[in-house]
């Protein structure tokens, strides 16, 4: 099996219609993302049906552009990969059926990829992995600590018991009446504010690597509500700074403890929230003098994209873990 | 000309291979829960049995709905991606029209419909006689009770075709009595070869632009529009 295989990857799990061509699991030949953010803005969040409709409108356009920008003919592809789950089922189905149709039409193998495996493998487009590796996956739908001892093996050692970190960001942003998407806005506000409010940190049991953000979210909402009733106000930037400090403390605290406990050589931060500057700064500070090497991908590879799916698919390609044409999309799916 | 036709917009999953007007094979499955699992394997199997390779295909005809939003997207995403990959034409045909054509030999009006929940249907109307078959009412999404009142005024015999006929049989007879013709047979299920036959004559759609005919805007959009109206 050749090592410089060309994989066309498709990702439609949420509100980005994306396609990419990846060479040998590490080289981005093209990475096309058609974002729908503008369409969902007025609703204050992603509307699944609208997302699915946009995917059908965009799907062949992004595939075509990915092939063209890669400067190849589709016949040169070695496999077709697609996000199989988890995600919005209607949205996933568009990508999965397009991928099956393409694989069948040009007679190439089909590979189903886990979205979170994709987020982790986004880093391999920047730097080769060294094991054991610890990944902190933080996004709108996920907050997980994943241990990898070798390629393609994922052990979830901690996960959220309620809200994902990104979800908490969105809800707090809504409470502060910030426009969608709220996460980046809170990050920006936080940089201008002071940590003047002491919000709780949910450490859970001492040995646990799990997360919980719903208590924090409620604390923020209650604090603002009580203040309002007393006729007091908090500066939004101070609320943002205090909220973010609580999230970042817990994320960083658990990550560093896990990294040391498992002797991680690399610590990878993955998912949309990896773009958060407060989180990045804090991780960089804490890991500066540690043995583990901290890796955070550039912004374009943190948010949803298909390049990361192609990178993760390369491992499955070499393991010859192919899907057949009855592959289905899965809204929830174990890593 | 080799045509691959497919439709997954309602309960039925249908795939057909038609070569120069001859139906080489059809695959029909009932039950709309796993169209995504079954569609491509059905296409693969049928093509194998009819000794058709993807490269032999000249055009793809796809049922454009209306129907289940998710269902219609499964065949649409499949059809347009196959058309793109093979560099061949894709043609969208109304799933109601394909069903209506099964009443081609009828003399009078033909009313195909699909249940759209909460008493609503997706429907249209066709006028059929020995030498013509044409659409007289565009696809609409009315309350079925309102639609039947409208049909009563036509005064002529009306043939009803629908996979959901049993849900509405008594309502139809109540409003239209003798004016309604309801066949008892498998004719209520659109054959995918009919889809191919209709699409054989049509001008190709733009493979990038073609989308399902949802008929309705999304709930989020219509609620948003209502809100905007109220704020005025
Ligand atoms: Zn993601």
Automatic annotation (TrEMBL), chain A:
It comes from the Bacteria. InterPro entries: ATPase_NBD, Gcp-like_dom, KAE1/TsaD, TsaD. It is found in: Cytoplasm. It catalyses: L-threonylcarbamoyladenylate + adenosine(37) in tRNA = N(6)-L-threonylcarbamoyladenosine(37) in tRNA + AMP + H(+). It is an enzyme of class 2 (transferase). SUPFAM superfamilies: Actin-like ATPase domain. Fe cation binds at residues 115, 119, 304. GO terms for cellular component: cytoplasm. Substrate binds at residues 137-141, 170, 183, 187, 276. Residues 28-310 form the Gcp-like domain. Its EC number is 2.3.1.234. Belongs to the KAE1 / TsaD family. Pfam families: TsaD (PF00814). The keyword Transmembrane does not apply. Keywords: Acyltransferase, Cytoplasm, Iron, Metal-binding, Transferase, tRNA processing. GO terms for molecular function: iron ion binding; tRNA N(6)-L-threonylcarbamoyladenine synthase activity. Its cofactor is Fe(2+). GO terms for biological process: tRNA threonylcarbamoyladenosine modification. The gene is tsaD. This is tRNA N6-adenosine threonylcarbamoyltransferase. Binds 1 Fe(2+) ion per subunit. Required for the formation of a threonylcarbamoyl group on adenosine at position 37 (t(6)A37) in tRNAs that read codons beginning with adenine. Is involved in the transfer of the threonylcarbamoyl moiety of threonylcarbamoyl-AMP (TC-AMP) to the N6 group of A37, together with TsaE and TsaB. TsaD likely plays a direct catalytic role in this reaction.
TrEMBL record, chain B:
InterPro entries: ATPase_NBD, Gcp-like_dom, T6A_TsaB. Transmembrane segments: none annotated. This is tRNA threonylcarbamoyladenosine biosynthesis protein TsaB. One of its GO terms (biological process) is tRNA threonylcarbamoyladenosine modification. SUPFAM superfamilies: Actin-like ATPase domain. One of its GO terms (cellular component) is cytosol. Signal peptide: none annotated. Gene3D superfamilies: 3.30.420.40. Residues 32-197 form the Gcp-like domain. It comes from the Bacteria.
């Amino acid at each position: 099996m050749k090592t410089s295989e060309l994989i066309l990857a498709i990702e439609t799990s949420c509100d980005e219609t994306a396609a990419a061509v990846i060479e040998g699991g590490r080289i981005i030949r093209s990475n096309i993302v058609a974002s729908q953010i503008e369409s969902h803005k007025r609703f204050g969040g992603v509307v699944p049906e609208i997302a699915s409709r946009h995917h059908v409108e965009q799907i062949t356009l992004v595939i075509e552009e990915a092939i063209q920008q890669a400067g190849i003919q589709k016949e040169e592809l070695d496999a077709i990969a697609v996000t199989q789950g988890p995600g919005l089922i209607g949205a996933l189905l568009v990508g999965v059926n397009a991928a099956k149709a393409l694989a069948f039409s040009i007679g190439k193998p089909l590979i189903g990829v886990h979205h979170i495996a994709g987020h982790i493998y986004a880093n391999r487009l920047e730097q080769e992995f060294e094991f054991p590796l610890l990944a902190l996956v933080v996004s709108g739908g996920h907050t997980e600590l994943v241990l990898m001892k070798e390629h393609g093996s994922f052990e979830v050692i901690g996960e959220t018991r309620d809200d994902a970190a990104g979800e908490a960001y969105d809800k707090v942003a809504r409470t502060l009446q910030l426009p969608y998407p709220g996460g980046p806005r809170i990050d920006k506000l936080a940089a201008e504010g002071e940590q003047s409010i002491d919000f709780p940190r949910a450490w859970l049991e001492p040995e646990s690597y799990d997360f919980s953000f719903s208590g924090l979210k409620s604390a923020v909402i209650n604090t603002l509500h009580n203040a309002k009733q007393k006729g007091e106000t908090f500066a939004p930037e101070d609320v943002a700074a205090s909220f973010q400090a609580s999230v970042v403390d817990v994320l960083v605290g658990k990550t560093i403890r896990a990294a040391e406990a498992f002797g991680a050589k690399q610590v990878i931060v993955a998912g949309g929230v990896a773009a958060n500057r407060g989180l990045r700064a804090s991780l960089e500070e804490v890991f500066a003098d540690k043995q583990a090497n901290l890796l955070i991908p550039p912004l374009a590879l943190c948010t949803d994209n298909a390049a990361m799916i192609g990178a993760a698919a390369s491992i499955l390609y070499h393991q010859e873990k192919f899907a057949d044409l009855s592959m289905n999309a899965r809204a929830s799916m174990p890593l | 000309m080799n045509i691959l036709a497919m439709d997954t917009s309602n309960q039925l999953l249908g795939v057909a291979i038609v070569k120069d007007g001859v139906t080489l094979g059809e695959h029909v499955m009932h039950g709309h829960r796993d169209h995504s699992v079954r569609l491509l394997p059905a296409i693969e199997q049928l093509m194998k049995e009819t000794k058709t390779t993807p490269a032999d295909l000249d055009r793809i005809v796809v049922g454009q709905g209306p129907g289940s939003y998710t269902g219609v997207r499964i065949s649409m995403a499949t059809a347009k991606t196959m058309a793109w990959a093979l560099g061949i034409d894709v043609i969208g045909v109304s799933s109601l029209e394909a069903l209506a054509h099964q009443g081609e030999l009828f003399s009078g009006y033909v009313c195909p419909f699909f249940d759209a929940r909460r008493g609503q249907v997706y429907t249209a109307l066709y006028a059929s006689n020995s030498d013509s078959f044409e659409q007289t009412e565009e696809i609409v999404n009315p309350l079925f009770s309102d639609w039947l009142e409208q049909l009563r005024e036509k005064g002529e015999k009306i043939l009803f075709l629908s996979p959901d006929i049993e849900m509405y049989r008594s309502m139809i007879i109540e409003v239209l009595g003798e004016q309604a013709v309801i066949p008892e047979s498998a004719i209520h299920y659109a054959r995918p070869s009919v889809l191919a036959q209709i699409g054989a004559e049509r001008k190709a759609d733009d493979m990038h632009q073609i989308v399902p005919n949802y008929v309705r805007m999304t709930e989020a959009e219509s609620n948003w529009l209502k809100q905007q109206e109220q704020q005025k």
